[in-house]
């Protein structure tokens, strides 16, 4: 189970990092897509956000804030894609981030039973 958790966390974290690097390099294809959505002028900021949020998600002490920030980022990306009738490219990283977060710390989604309530 630990190997599966590490693998899914790595994939879920690499996706925004690679996407962020592509935005920082301002490749023609990525810029065409961002300009279609009207956010091409903000490619560097968006790329930096993805990389920083992924780094927060990877580090165990900041995983929860990284999870929240990545969830918000990709939810916004998904909403933008929906409003422009584009494919749901943001859905896969968002789902993997949620799965990785659940595997790493279930208390994000499920209540933690205290010792006093048991028994």
Account of the 3D structure:
The chain is mostly helical. It has one domain (2-117). Helix content is 71%, strand content 0%. The protein contains 5 helices and no strands. The protein has helices at 2-25, 28-37, 43-58, 63-83, 91-104. Helix 4 (63-83) packs antiparallel against helix 5 (91-104). The longest helix is centred in the first third of the chain and has 24 residues, at 2-25. It is elongated. The model has no long low-confidence stretch (mean pLDDT 91).
> Number of helix segments?
5
Question: Judging from the principal axes of the Cα atoms, what is the shape?
Answer: elongated
How many E-type strands? 0
The end-to-end span amounts to: 28 Å
Summary?
The chain has 119 residues and is mainly α. Helix content is 71%, strand content 0%. It contains 5 helices and no strands.
Observed structural traits:
119 residues, mainly alpha, 0% strand
Provide the fold topology.
Elements (H helix, E strand, L loop, with lengths): L1 H24 L2 H10 L5 H16 L4 H21 L7 H14 L15
Helix pairs in contact: 1-3, 1-5, 3-4, 4-5
């Amino acid at each position: 189970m630990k190997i599966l958790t590490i693998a899914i966390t790595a994939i879920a974290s690499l996706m925004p990092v690679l996407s962020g690097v592509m935005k920082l390099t301002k490749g023609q294809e990525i810029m065409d897509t961002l300009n279609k959505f009207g956010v091409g002028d903000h490619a560097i900021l968006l790329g930096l956000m993805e990389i920083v949020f992924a780094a927060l998600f990877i580090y165990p002490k900041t995983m929860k804030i990284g999870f929240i920030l990545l969830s918000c980022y990709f939810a916004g990306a998904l909403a933008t894609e929906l409003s422009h009738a584009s494919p749901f490219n943001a859905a896969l990283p968002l789902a993997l981030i949620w799965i990785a977060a659940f595997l790493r710390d279930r208390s994000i989604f499920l209540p933690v039973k205290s010792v006093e309530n048991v028994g």
